[in-house]
Amino acid sequence: MIVVVDERELVTEGYNSLFDREGVACAGFAPDEFDAWVSSAPEADLKSVRAFLIGDCREGTVSPRQIRGRTGAPVIALSEQNSLENTLRLFESGVDDVVRKPVHIREILARIAAIRRRAEADATPWIQIGALRIFMDGRDPEIDGAPLPLPRRERRILEYLAANRGRRVTKTQVFNAIYGIFDEEVEENVVESHISKLRKKLRERLGQDPVDSKRFLGYRLIV
To answer: What is the value of pTM for the model shown?
Structure first.
């Protein structure tokens, strides 16, 4: 999930729509709402956030260092001012990157992936599990070098399982990461349908099921 903070509701709604087209969950906050949420949100909710995008906010209303105190997710400033002074000010406030608008959603996702790769000591552009190669930048996975086309939700679930490889994640955690913690229009059980379809496709190509499922405990990608 991507969290966007901006004083203008029209802006947060616009990003929500654009990220949804890319199969990425997004939640929008006004600065005051965000401050209350980030200081009190459960750790499980914060773990579902891939990055924070800080847009037009009054100076001092959003603190990147406060965010950093609760989560290691990248913090990116979206700037409408094309000036060196403003860019330096934003970096000094603690953000990981400054992006000048207008910017394509895919560029934002690529920057997020790059920051996260650099933050990991053993960073690679992909995760290899046997014959299965899972990319973390939106590309379809490959099996023995051949692409495995997947719908965007199934691809995102596979990426999430890969990012948590070796650990079991609950259905709620998967849902929060893929649909966002504030999506009340989609039932959580939709995760079971997506994972069932994903496992069938993987099983057909790999000859085995790489996803271990335990009722009430969740899912784990077998490494």
So the answer is: 0.63
